[in-house]
């Protein structure tokens, strides 16, 4: 929307326009009856509707109206299945519309920078392509019902410590390539109705009051035409926020913000046109979300429960499966089901995303329903984490008498939540003790995990033959786990976040969560696997990893580059065959590495992926077209994305560490010419297509250093102005001056 006169605002006073720009209550906008402007409702959250219960007294995260609790983003991100996220989005949209909600506050596409972030369960991945593709798919689903999505938290909101005050100090290249890229993809491909500005500062400026983020990048560069809403309570200075490009401050401030805006317009500190622009965007949002989508939306919550079960099953990651201990479909033998989480599932995270689930299935009930007489249960530990020798002894007795032990472990609710970060990533000691005790009586052990952020497997991994990472998987997760354990469903989730051998290996470790109000993203682009793979550090389970009950073979990789520079297209095709005996899904991952680049880049980066469903023996060809952006880095010098000429490695595989086929492709592009100044080094000058020959010409016969290779090697890091001085001015030349003025 341009900065022009908006006739829809003609009948409104300045006070009324200002009133539109902050909430009427915690969850809705102001109405202006005489102008026919209705109030609209915005509510959480990413994996289920958290609609404030009108009967509730006061503020509460838990007292909301019942809604389907879908798997959290940590789970959905591990599905690597955009169609699934669209289906979940549609269901969320239907429940929203049925409840009269116009904007659903999600998805969260922040990067999982450190496993310690308390909100990682609400985020999709450590990788911007996974976050962006899946985030866009969810937005498309929600918005197909006429409900608007709110992509959050823009931007660099990667921790909870000091979340309302901390300044994320991130260099621009890292922001562009890692932390903004997911948002950019969602904005450009799914046209979200709203973006939520984060609490934190980015390089010193509050995200909700940050003109560079909200206006320069989001609107001018990416073409976002929706509304920017603040995170709840993120605005400190409403005038600065509107001037920066924020449209709606939430929640209500009792009229304080409107009064501040009116005063600022009256005394000339804020242009009325800025306020009009924001008010116009709110009207646009109201129009955009009013009555579109399905004419009479019906939320069939039974069907949504079925979808939630499918989503949970698609999201679980089979980390290991020695001796093919899973699936437990032998038809005979007893199964010891151990761990309180089997009976009392941990299926969602705490904070604003908390849903009052319509119903909750436990794995114990689902397993009992499927294999009743074979199931023996013992709690093994309590949810409060208290030590329980008796509970462990009971579990050991049950395990000793069974053919296999399935041990349900995970994180207690009070260690991960919105609002604070974790300080460790290991499982509670009582649970590890249980596992150790059980391993004394049986080696047939399957561990099922329930956690939002990753947990360290080092130290106990060897005690389990199989590990099934179930995540916080929503109200139907228990049934999904039973389906996976019994082989009714073949696991197909893949890690969207690396599990390091230990926390200290994480690249952000020495810079998390910062101090003195600042967190420095010192690891730069090297987030997650970009770091582990470039540094060749062993990990417990790599990014993209996940096993299946079948096997897949890759063949016939073909890579062809067409066009050049910004028009380059690299066509990749590869055949994938299900070589096992059961149907299954493979996630084909395509990584790109720039072999000869002039700047430092991660050794490989995921650029595309496809989840394919294959019957036993079936093959399919996966085809992907990579564009120039997929080959580029963000050049600070050029102020834009740059694709360099030369060889790129295209690797196709089942994880960032399980690359099955690679091809090198040569890309045509103009050489990257540095901007030359007198301060540029001699080597930079010599490498420049015009500056190099010029310097050679001027230097010939005047400065021997330029023609003697041995001396040249020694002086090439010297800035040209120093060489000119040291040459007693012999290198100074009007030709050089003219060149510098020109370029
Ligand atoms: C959270 C947002 C949420 C909002 C409304 C904030 O504290 O950061 O994610 O949407 O509250 O509940």
Automatic annotation (TrEMBL):
It holds the Pfam family Glyco_hydro_3. GO terms for molecular function: hydrolase activity. Residues 586-656 form the Fibronectin type III-like domain. Gene3D superfamilies: Glycoside hydrolase family 3 C-terminal domain, Glycoside hydrolase, family 3, N-terminal domain, Immunoglobulins. The keyword Magnesium does not apply. Keywords: Carbohydrate metabolism, Glycosidase, Hydrolase. Belongs to the glycosyl hydrolase 3 family. This is Glycoside hydrolase family 3 C-terminal domain-containing protein. It comes from Actinocorallia longicatena.
């Amino acid at each position: 929307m341009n900065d022009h006169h908006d006739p829809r605002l003609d009948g409104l006073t300045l006070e009324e326009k200002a009133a539109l720009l902050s909430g009427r209550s915690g969850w809705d906008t102001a109405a202006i009856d005489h102008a026919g402007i209705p109030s609209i409702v915005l509510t959480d959250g990413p994996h289920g509707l958290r609609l404030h219960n009108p009967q509730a007294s006061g503020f509460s995260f838990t007292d909301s109206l019942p809604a389907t609790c879908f798997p959290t983003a940590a789970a959905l991100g591990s599905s690597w299945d955009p169609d699934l996220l669209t289906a979940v989005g549609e269901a969320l949209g239907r429940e929203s519309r049925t409840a009269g909600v116009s904007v659903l506050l999600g998805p969260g596409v922040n990067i999982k920078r450190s496993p310690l972030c308390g909100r990682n369960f609400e985020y999709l991945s450590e990788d911007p392509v996974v976050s962006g593709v899946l985030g866009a798919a969810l937005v498309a689903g929600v918005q197909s019902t006429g409900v608007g999505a709110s992509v959050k938290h823009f931007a660099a909101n990667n921790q909870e410590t000091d979340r309302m005050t901390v300044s994320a100090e991130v260099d621009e290249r890292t922001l562009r390539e890692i932390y903004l890229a997911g948002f950019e993809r969602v904005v450009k491909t799914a046209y979200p109705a709203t973006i939520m500005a984060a609490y934190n500062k980015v390089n010193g400026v509050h995200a909700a009051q940050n003109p560079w983020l909200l206006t320069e990048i989001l609107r001018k560069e990416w073409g976002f035409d929706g509304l920017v809403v603040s995170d709840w309570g993120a605005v400190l200075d409403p005038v600065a926020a509107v001037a920066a490009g924020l449209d709606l401050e939430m929640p209500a401030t009792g009229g304080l913000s409107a009064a501040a805006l009116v005063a600022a317009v009256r005394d000339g500190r804020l242009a009325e046109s800025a306020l009009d622009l924001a008010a116009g965007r709110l009207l646009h949002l109201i129009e955009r979300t009013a009555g579109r989508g399905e004419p009479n939306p019906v939320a069939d919550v039974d069907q949504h429960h079925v979808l939630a079960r499918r989503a949970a099953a698609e999201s679980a990651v089979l980390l290991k499966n020695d001796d093919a201990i899973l699936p437990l479909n032998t038809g005979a033998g007893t199964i010891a089901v151990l761990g309180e989480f089997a009976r009392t599932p941990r299926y969602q995270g705490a904070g604003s995303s908390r849903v009052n689930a319509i119903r909750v299935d436990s794995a114990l009930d689902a397993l009992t329903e499927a294999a009743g007489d074979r199931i023996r249960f013992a709690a093994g530990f309590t949810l409060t984490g208290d030590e329980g020798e008796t509970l462990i002894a009971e579990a050991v007795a049950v395990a000793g008498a069974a053919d296999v032990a399935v041990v349900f472990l995970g994180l207690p609710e009070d260690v991960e939540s919105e609002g604070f970060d974790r300080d460790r990533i290991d499982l509670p000691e009582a649970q590890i003790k249980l596992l150790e005790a059980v391993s004394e009586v049986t080696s047939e052990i399957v561990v099922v995990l329930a956690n939002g952020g990753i947990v360290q497997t080092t130290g106990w991994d060897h005690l389990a033959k199989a590990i099934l990472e179930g995540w916080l998987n929503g109200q139907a997760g228990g049934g999904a786990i039973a389906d996976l354990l019994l082989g009714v469903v073949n696991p197909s989730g893949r890690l969207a976040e690396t599990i390091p051998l230990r926390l200290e290996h994480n690249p952000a470790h020495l810079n998390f969560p910062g101090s003195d109000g600042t967190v420095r993203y010192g690891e730069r682009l090297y987030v997650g696997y970009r770091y582990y793979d470039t540094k060749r550090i062993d990990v417990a389970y790599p990014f993209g990893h996940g096993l299946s009950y079948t096997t897949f073979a890759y063949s016939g990789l073909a890579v062809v580059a067409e066009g050049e520079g910004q028009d380059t297209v690299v066509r990749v095709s590869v055949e994938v065959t299900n070589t096992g005996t059961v149907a299954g899904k493979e996630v084909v991952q395509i990584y790109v590495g720039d072999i000869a680049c002039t700047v430092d880049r991660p050794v490989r980066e995921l650029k595309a992926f496809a989840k394919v469903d294959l019957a036993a023996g079936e093959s399919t060809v996966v085809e992907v077209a990579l564009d120039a952006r997929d080959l580029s880095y963000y050049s600070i010098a050029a102020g834009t994305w740059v694709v360099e000429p030369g060889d790129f490695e295209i690797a196709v595989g089942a994880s960032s560490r399980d690359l099955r086929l690679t091809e090198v492709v040569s890309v045509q592009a103009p050489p990257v010419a540095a901007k030359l100044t007198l301060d540029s080094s001699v080597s930079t000058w010599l490498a420049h297509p015009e500056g190099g020959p010029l310097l050679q010409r001027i230097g010939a016969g005047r400065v021997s250093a330029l023609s003697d290779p041995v001396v040249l090697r020694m002086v090439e890091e010297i800035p040209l102005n120093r060489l000119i001085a040291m040459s007693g001015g012999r290198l100074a030349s009007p030709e050089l001056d003219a060149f510098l003025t020109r370029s």
